[in-house]
Design a protein that fits this description.
This protein is α/β, with parallel strands linked by helices. Helices cover about 40% and strands about 20% of the residues. The strands form three sheets. It has an eight-stranded parallel beta barrel, surrounded by seven helices. A two-stranded antiparallel ribbon has the order 6-7.
Length: about 325
């Protein structure tokens, strides 16, 4: 449950899409803003998609209000000095609308394609922790100031912190993960904590942690700042209908190795009538403190009445 001493965060909703068509990408951005979504999401993989940071600038060129987020950048793909400079540049070029999502890397295929070493989790998380410190120092440095950093994995000396990001004190930082080490780092350092539902459900392995356990990890690591954090999930199962499809739920259960009941109970599932989904959103915010959901662009039209109900309430 949420802290009784803090008010729940307002709901926010993002749209995720993967494309290499400028026309399609900008149309999704325009539509997301018109319908009432809060953020447009760019992923970071070596597949058939745009590079995320330039794509956000292109989306910013055709929108005014829409926030622009990475979910999430793989820290191993960019040196943090370059990342900080590019992120600050995106924030300036989009008039202060960047939300910088960062992760330690999780998809082995990305590493195999590029020849990057897929190091053990503790090493990847250590590097990410240092990168977050560098980005924060870059974003918050005084004008005309150079920054230096010496860590186990990165060393920076007299780096010009330019350009200055538009947002003050800095662009919001999201950190996403699914294991305790990553979620604890996110709880301590991020403004938005993305709790991944991509657990591997192997028959010969212990059951993965429940979502409630993951939230508790975040709560313990965050301490008194838990109430300031936004909790995010990807809504991967969306069916806005007075008569939701049982077949759809069964297909998702088979794909994820869960039972249909587990799919329905997942925080990443939004299924039912508009009224039912609004009830689910409020119940999960009360139970898990989730206030930020991201859905795929193909669900935008169907989800629009939910947005209208939430924003009108």
């Amino acid at each position: 449950m949420t802290d009784s001493t803090s008010r729940p965060h307002p709901f926010r909703f993002g749209v995720n899409s993967v494309t290499t068509s400028l026309w399609e990408w900008q149309e999704i951005a325009r539509k997301a803003e018109a319908v009432g979504f809060d953020t447009l999401i760019a992923q970071d993989h070596f597949g058939k998609q745009f590079a995320p940071l330039p794509a956000l600038v292109a989306a910013g060129a055709v929108t005014v209000r829409l926030r622009l987020a990475t979910l999430v950048l793989d820290n191993d793909f960019r040196h943090p000095a370059a990342l900080a400079k590019e992120a600050a540049t995106v924030d300036v070029l989009t008039s202060g609308r960047l939300e910088l999502g960062l992760g330690a890397g999780w998809l082995p295929a990305d590493y195999a394609k590029t020849g990057l070493a897929f190091d053990p989790p503790d090493q990847r998380v250590e590097r990410l922790s240092e990168a977050v410190q560098i980005c924060k120092a870059f974003f918050t440095a005084e004008a005309e100031t150079a920054i230096s950093f010496t860590g186990k994995h990165y060393r920076i000396e007299n780096l010009d912190a330019s350009p200055r990001p538009t947002q003050k004190p800095r662009p919001p930082i999201m950190i996403g993960g699914r294991q305790r080490r990553m979620l604890s780092l996110a709880a301590r350092e991020a403004d938005i904590v993305g709790i991944s539902l991509l657990d591997r459900r192997l028959p010969d392995q212990p059951a993965p942690p429940t979502f409630a356990q993951k939230v508790e990890w975040v709560r313990q690591a965050a301490g008194g700042r838990f109430g300031d954090l936004q909790i995010h999930v990807n809504a991967s199962v969306v069916d806005v209908s007075d008569t939701p499809s049982d077949q759809y739920i069964e297909q998702m259960a088979e794909r994820t190795g869960q039972s249909p009941g587990q799919v329905l109970e997942s925080p990443g599932t939004l299924v039912g009538s508009v009224d039912a989904i609004v009830e689910q959103l409020h119940a999960r915010r009360e139970r898990y403190a989730i206030s930020y959901y991201v859905i795929h662009a193909r669900f935008m039209d169907a989800f629009a009445p939910v947005l209208a109900r939430i924003h009108g309430s």
